[in-house]
Amino acid sequence: MPPKPTAENPPEPEQDLPQQMSFFWLVVPLLVALFYAWYLQQNDAMPAVLSKLFRSGEESDLYDLRILTDRTIFDVVDLKGKGKGLIAIRDIKQGELVIQEKPILTAPDGDIAEVLLNPILQNLTSAQTKALLSLSYTHLKTEKDETVNVNAKNLTPRARYLLAEGIITNNAVGINLNGQHSLGVFPRMARLNHACASGYNLAYAWRDDEGELRIYALKDIKEGEELLISYIDSRRPRKERIEKLEKTYGFTCTCPICSLPPEESEKSDELLPQFTLFYTDFAQWYKGSITGKEAIQHIRKIWQLTVDTGYVRERGRWAQEAAYVATVHGDETSARQWLRLAIEWMGIETGIDSVKTTNLQFTLDNLQEHPELASREVMDVGGPIL
């Protein structure tokens, strides 16, 4: 029998039940949080700042497909009729860096033989292989009557090659690797869907020195808009674009440009091919067939066409070529105007710190020392009309 409570012998506080309850409310939420984190990781939806806590030692050294900056710019979502795509989760400013990504796989450009690709695949980590095989493909390069089970739990070397080759064909980007034209696979970029002409809002540029791809916003993008690039040269008529995309990528384009009403689509089809026509006329200057002033007039036509169509992807290059014409003809005033315009648009397309942009700035700062300044007939060729 317990002693009777007195002033010298106070009663024991009844703590058994509260201690048990405290333990319950500490452990159960922790278990729930751990399960939720595991679930997010399995579904590729965990923010990078958390995913790092739930990765093995091998995983921590891998190329991270869920870097923290992604979650502040875009999210990967399922889109009806498109599979996965990227949606802006906040407003993105023109020229802003959206994706910065190293390739998980590089290969020589052209037809990739099995004997060449299999060693490359064997050097991938398990997570890199998973990332590669999660991407889409259109066709498999099978032999006649050959059947391949690409859904097998353990792929045969032959099946792995065919699947990887099909994925590379569909998703790889041309890059300059150690001075040679090569192919690179970038899983996050591969999630970007296609749009034609003025319908896409991103431009990508390979950074040779950094060994990575940079993707920039060509225009202001509103929260909730899909992030889009162009898979092909989309400055061609609608019928040609759709046929090219169906044959190469296996889908029928329904982007805003391909979905224009018939009358507007016809007008677009008339305008877009003029880029090639005007540039062909401009290129006659390099052969000496037209004057510098005539060459600049063709560039002005191209520039006006970018306004009429909304296609601004190559403005930096066109302004750069106009600046070169003005420089060669000794029109320093016009050359500086075109160079400033080229720097602005090259910075938007490739980044203000890219080699292309900084080279243009160097040319502007040292124009009077340009080796070809006034090397042809001196004339006022004219600057940009904006």
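^ that was protein a. below is b, sequence first then the tokens
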Amino acid sequence: MYPDLAGKTAIVTGSSKGIGQGIAVRFGREKMNVVVDYHTDPNGAEETVRLIKEHGGNAMAVEADVSREEGMRQLIDAAIQRFGAIQVMVNNAGFSNGCPSHELSLQDWRRVLEVNLTGAFLGSREAIKYMLDHDINGSVINISSVHQQIPKVHNVHYSTTKGGMKMMTETLALEYAGRGIRVNAIAPGTIETPANPTEEKQGKEKEATLEKIPMNKIGKPEQIAAAAAWLVSEEAGYVTGTTLFVDGGMTLYPSQLG
């Protein structure tokens, strides 16, 4: 637990389920105020709010399309109106709809880039702008993926967004380090979420997944959330511009083991 986080306010995009929900609930355990963003899952968002309050934090759910400027500003405005300030921004919203690259439609390409990369840019931009205007030493986390480093077949749009997120994170970190704003990324490996329910897979499919992970197990949202809580705390106050891989060793390329 990190006592310095108590009473601070965070926005977590895409936090109605999965990794985003895990991060939001962990912030609740840290006694933070959390704006829970959702786009199509109001019931999941309300469940996240309930869990945050159950763990001692405060929260509200806001529907917003993070790929649009007006959606992101809606989140910022809601946080300020309800909690008075913003110290933490977590750009977690993202998705993929894999298919062979030669069959990928321009519409699907654009939508994945709009949500995954443009959404993270808009969240970072609006949060940094607010922090600068109010002289806040804040923190931004971008939720990336091991696929900022490892290519993912049939997911050229998704991998492109995560590779772009890496450079965006580093550029923003360099630009605003002297202003007291830290910008980092977390790159999860295979995590047990509704979008990736690997624990339910059986037989050869599960074996093939585990063969890519040196620790031979699937990660959990709580483990990503623990990394996020540390990164936004004062214990990580000298950390900026880095990507923290939480992947069970997946980026060590276990196929190279003899």
